[in-house]
Amino acid sequence: MKLLAPERRILTKGIDTPNLNTIEVYEKQGGYSAMKKAFGMAPDAIIGEVKASGLRGRGGAGFPTGMKWGFVPFNLGKPIYLLCNADESEPGCFKDRLLLEKNPHLLIEGIIIASFAVRSHKSYIYVRGEYTLAAKIVQKAIDEAYAKGYLGKNILGSKHDLDLVLHRGAGAYICGEETGLISSLEGKKGYPRLKPPFPAVSGFLNCPTVVNNVETLCTVPWIIQNGGATYATYGTEKSKGTRLFCLSGWVNKPGVYEEELGLPLKVMIDHYGGGMKDGSKLKAVIPGGSSTPPLTPEEVDKCLLDYDHIATFGSFLGAGGIIVIPEHIPLIKILERISEFYWDESCGQCTPCREGTGWLFKTIRSIEHHHGHKEDIDDLKRTATSMMGATICALSDAAAMPVLGFLKKFPQDFQALLDEAERKRKVSAGRKLDGQETTEMTEVTR
Amino acid sequence: MSDEKNVKAVAPPSGAVDQKVAAPPPPAPPKKTVTLEINGMKVEVEPGTTVFNAAVKAGIFIPHYCYHPDLSIAGVCRMCMVEIEKVPRPQISCNTVATEGMVVKTDTDKIKETVKSVLELHLINHPLDCPICDKAGECGLQNFYRDYGLYTPRMDFEKVHKPKVQDIGTIVLDSERCILCTRCVRFTAEVTKTSELGIFQRGDRSTLKIYDDGHLRNDYTGNLADICPVGALTAKDFRFQQRVWFLEKTASVCGLCAHGCNIDVSVNPKKNELYRVEPRRNPEVNKSWICDDGRWGYQYITADTRIHLPKKHWEGVWRDHTWMDFFKEMPALLEMGKAVVGLSTQMTNEELFDLGTTLKNLEVTSVVRLAEDEAVEDKKPFDGILKHRDLTPNAAGFEQVMKWLGLKWLTLAQGIAEVARGPEWVFAFGLEGGEERLAHLQPFWGAIPATSRLAVHATNALPVLSRATWVLPNVSFYEKNGSFVSALNRLQRVKAAIPWQYMARDAHAVALGLRRGDDREAPNSRAGEISFQKVVAPNTVSEEVTFKKFTKFGQNVGATETLGGMA
Question: What is the pLDDT of residue B501?
Answer without folding.
Answer: 81
